[in-house]
Amino acid sequence: MALDFSNIHSLKRFEQKNSKRQKTDFNFEREYNFSIDVDRNLSIFPFFERDIDLNEAVFFDTETTGLSHGAGNMVFLAGLGFLKGKKFVVRQYFVSNPSVEHRLIETVIDLFSKKNVVVTYNGKCFDIPVIRTRCALNGICEPEIEQIDLYHISRFVWKDRLKGFRLVDVEKDILNFTRKGDLPGSMAPFAYREFLLRGEKKLLEKVFRHNLTDVYSLFKLFLRVGDESRWDILHAKARKHFKEKNFEAALEYLRKVVKLNIPENFKKDAYFLASMCLKRIGELEKAVLLWKRIGDVPSLIELAKFYEHKKRNYSKALVFTDLAIKNTSLSSPLYADLLKREKRLRNKVKTLFT
């Protein structure tokens, strides 16, 4: 059962009933320092609207008494990471007595005000809304902050590669490490409740370790998505530019991708995306060369469209349509559309000779 700290009366009642249990050796603040050697010229654009200096960022994660945004959900542990010289510093702020939660919130907001960007993992949907609610309940003014949510960036970058997008999934499959003995975040409310009511510290220490790992992983993941030596990042940035109709910028990234030693299926994807960029900017003849080089079903369909609508060469369009049909499964949604295209083209060819 979660503890409800939605108002000051709840906090006072809890303090009165549990005052004898509040003796603890858990300090308000802990600090960890990690030596780092990173390229500070990383580029997060276009996943974010602009590039940022790493010194602008604070990496943020919370542990709360519940899993909702409601007024009864209190932040009892906040982890904040930032660069300091050649070290990555993680500070954790802990509320050992719920009646002084305002001190944690004030400390977090103060650090936010000194940085330009807050980096989270699913923080737009959870951590930041919770902080805003707690600011309102504690009478604290929150600063305007810019957010980078690595959850949404990860889903965009690795949408065809990962089956799950929990932070632990990304750690395992992208950052190449697996947590050992980690307490799931969903257990944090229970661990805090046991600490408050029974003085249980063992589980709570695991929450601290979980939170520390979350913050450090945020930092490592940020470095990963900004690393333009990685072909998957270059390809994702090309897709992002294409989505935003910046076709020339997308082509620049794709030219870099195809020069790298990458799996053939991904290289085909890069060539096809490049062909679509060329199509959008009117370089159709160059696009045709790429479609013929790729030769997969989407490329055959594009060739059929080109010869039907641009060249009015219905016979040639029919040839590419028939090739596409032969390479398409009967269960594919494309199959029925291709049959319709074939019928239309056959009628056009027939008309030419009548």
Explain what the structure shows.
By secondary structure, this protein is α/β, with parallel strands linked by helices. It has 2 domains: 8-225, Ribonuclease H-like superfamily/Ribonuclease H (Nucleotidyltransferase, domain 5), CATH 3.30.420.10; 231-352, Tetratricopeptide repeat domain (Serine Threonine Protein Phosphatase 5, Tetratricopeptide repeat). The chain contains 14 helices and 6 strands. The chain has helices at 8-18, 101-114, 127-138, 150-157, 167-175, 188-198, 202-225, 231-243, 247-257, 264-280, 284-294, 297-310, 314-326, 333-352, and strands at 29-35, 57-64, 75-84, 87-94, 117-120, 146-149. Strands 1-4-3-2-5-6 form a 6-stranded mixed beta sheet. Helix 4 crosses helix 7 and helix 5 packs across helix 7 (202-225). The longest helix has 24 residues, at 202-225. The chain is elongated and about 90 Å long. The mean pLDDT is 90.
Blueprint (SSEs and pairs):
Layout: H1 8-18, E1 29-35, E2 57-64, E3 75-84, E4 87-94, H2 101-114, E5 117-120, H3 127-138, E6 146-149, H4 150-157, H5 167-175, H6 188-198, H7 202-225, H8 231-243, H9 247-257, H10 264-280, H11 284-294, H12 297-310, H13 314-326, H14 333-352
Parallel strand pairs: 2-5, 5-6
Antiparallel strand pairs: 1-4, 2-3, 3-4
Helix pairs in contact: 2-3, 4-7, 5-7, 8-9, 9-10, 10-11, 11-12, 12-13, 13-14
Would you summarize the structure shown here?
With 354 residues, the chain is of the alpha/beta class.
* Strand tally: 6
CATH homologous superfamily identity of the largest domain: Ribonuclease H-like superfamily/Ribonuclease H
Portion of residues within helices = 40-55%
Task: Give Rg in angstroms.
Answer: 27 Å
Tell me the distance between the termini. 80 Å
The global form is: elongated
Output the number of helix runs. Answer: 14
The CATH architecture of the largest domain comes to 2-Layer Sandwich
